[in-house]
Specification:
This protein is α+β, with helices and mostly antiparallel strands and 302 residues long. Helix content is 55%, strand content 16%. The chain folds into two domains: 76 residues, 434 Repressor (Amino-terminal Domain) (Orthogonal Bundle); 217 residues, Endonuclease Chain A (Endonuclease, Chain A, 2-Layer Sandwich). It is built from twelve helices and nine strands. The strands form two sheets. The protein has a seven-stranded mixed β-sheet, with helices on both faces. Strands 1-2 form a two-stranded antiparallel ribbon. A hairpin with a 5-residue loop joins strand 1 and strand 2. Helix 2 packs across helix 3, helix 6 packs parallel to helix 8 and helix 9 runs antiparallel to helix 10. The longest helix has 25 residues. The relative contact order is 0.14.
Length: 302
């Protein structure tokens, strides 16, 4: 169900519930925790997360408890997301109804990574968090929560098989191969060597896709400088949504600090569609991209 707000933005009540869930996860709150803080039953919260919510007073209370603005919760204008867990949950939600995904994500779109990547990524995320003033148990909880969301995304992508255009920065791949999948650089030499081998295997996984060219998967290797932030365009049947993110996975991940933006604003969509089209037009594709990646692997990998 949807309605139209005062400024003309279409409000999807199901999306409000999805955002509520994402922001709750981002705060590390269980359904019971949030229900208690709101003074409502667990069943009422469950209905709210399904989008069965109508009273502005309830929306205001939820926004206050979760520390987000009411417009962000309602999806009016730009949605600001300051938690990596909440952001990747929002990506999962947006991908559910996607027909096509276009993205620039370093070092490669997570959706196109191997299953073994997930196991190493869990340790890498914990390493990156351990640099901050965070307890071991909190680091474990954050990493496990994020890995669960990421795996759900990958499983849904493989089941639904939406079209995907993945733009890969050649320079990001070079750093990935040189440094390996590491959360920090003060690891033992043998660990770093193993992580560099993992990065090589992951690059070879991408190389195999470039050679086989699976149906619905398009990969372009970009040699020119790329924007410093990642972005993804989610094309759905009735709208397109843009997500711009400072969060990253892989080599030296960032899941601690930053503010991601999610919007359907026409100007933002047009500008990023143009950037994606320009990068795709200039990118290496197919056999040419495979040969370039093969040379890159031999030059920079262990």
């Amino acid at each position: 169900m949807s309605d139209v707000g005062a400024n003309g933005d279409r409000i999807h009540f199901g999306d409000i519930g999805a955002r509520l869930r994402a922001y709750r996860l981002g705060k590390g709150l269980t359904p019971d925790d949030l229900a208690d803080r709101l003074g409502i039953s667990r069943a009422a919260l469950y209905r709210a997360e399904k989008g069965e919510i109508r009273k502005i007073e309830m929306l205001t209370s939820i926004a206050d408890v979760l520390g987000v603005s009411l417009p962000s919760l309602m999806g009016v204008g730009v949605e600001y997301v300051s938690s990596a867990t909440a952001f990747f949950e929002r990506m999962r939600q947006l991908e559910i109804n996607c027909e096509q995904i276009i993205g620039l994500f370093s070092p490669v779109s997570y959706l196109l990574t191997s299953d073994h990547y997930d196991e190493v990524l869990r340790e890498v995320l914990k390493e990156s968090i351990s640099n901050a003033n965070v307890s071991a148990s909190e680091a474990d909880t954050t990493a496990e929560s994020l890995i669960a969301i990421l795996r759900e995304r990958k499983q849904a992508f493989r089941y639904r098989r939406p079209l995907i255009v993945s733009l890969i920065s050649s320079s990001d791949l070079e750093r990935f191969l040189l440094n390996g999948m590491v959360g920090r650089h003060d690891l033992p030499p043998e660990t770093i060597r193993q992580r560099r081998l993992m990065a090589r295997r992951e690059a070879e996984y991408v190389l195999a896709m470039l050679r086989d060219q699976p149906i619905g998967i398009q990969i372009g290797v970009v040699r020119e400088p790329v924007p410093g932030t990642s972005f993804q365009i989610f094309r759905q049947a009735d709208r397109s949504v843009l997500a711009i993110s400072p969060f990253r996975l892989g080599e030296q991940p960032n899941i601690r600090l930053g503010v991601a933006l999610i919007t359907s604003a026409p100007e933002a969509m047009t500008l990023h569609e143009d950037i994606a089209a320009q990068l795709w037009a200039d990118a290496l594709k197919g056999q040419e991209a495979a040969e370039h990646l093969e040379r890159t692997i031999e030059k920079y990998a262990v």
